[in-house]
Amino acid sequence: MKLSIDLACESSQEWIDAVMADFDSFLQDHADCERKASSMAMSFVAKFPDRLEIIPELIETAVEELEHFRDVYALMESRGIALKSEMGKDPYAQALIKYARHGREDRFMDRLLLASIIECRGAERFRMVADALPPGEVKQFYKRLWTSEAKHGNIFVKMALNYFEKDAVYKRLHELVDNEAEVLQGLEIRPALH
């Protein structure tokens, strides 16, 4: 059974050009995204402590995202780049969360599926970054991240299938993937992960 679906649109050449033109800013944003991803995984544990089947995997995901933050921070340190003084709101994530339905069960499903989509988009973009970088340690780092993020996209769909009927999960996932494409295409191009 396929645990994720293809994104409805690809990231643009303009996006990767903006990242390569200001890679330091991209690294700062990337560090913030890893911290937010770790917090997001733990927020599921905090909000849904009765979902015992998925708690161990959520904790593992949170730890892995925190390890990614550590690794991005080490890369930033080696290049003399500081963390941003404040973590700003992510316009991409903010726009996506508006599509989450209300009601405990509907919102739970939608948050898991949106997490999957965000991770799949991250994987696509890390692959683009890896492809654009010259040979070396940073290129290898982004190749490793690409694989990890793709796995996370699958994990959240698998979690949803623990609690919801397969057809309902995939119907909603398709809807949210279409919503994500609209959001992505409407965003300002900037040297940021999203």
Task: Kindly list the characteristics that best describe this protein.
194 residues, mainly alpha, Ferritin, 7 helices
**Main sheet summary:** none
Q: What is the CATH class?
A: Mainly Alpha
- Shape call: globular
Order of helices and strands: HHHHHHH
Q: Enumerate how many helices there are, as a single number.
A: 7
Low-confidence stretches: none
CATH architecture: Up-down Bundle
Question: Could you report the average pLDDT, rounded to the nearest whole number?
Answer: 93
In CATH, the homologous superfamily goes by the name Ferritin, core subunit, four-helix bundle
Number of domains: 1
How would you characterize the overall build of this protein?
- This protein has 194 residues and is mainly alpha-helical.
- It has one domain: Ferritin, core subunit, four-helix bundle (Ferritin), CATH 1.20.1260.
- Helices cover 73% and strands 0% of the residues.
- The chain has seven helices and no strands.
- The longest helix has 29 residues.
- The protein is globular, with a radius of gyration of 16 Å.
- The two termini are 28 Å apart.
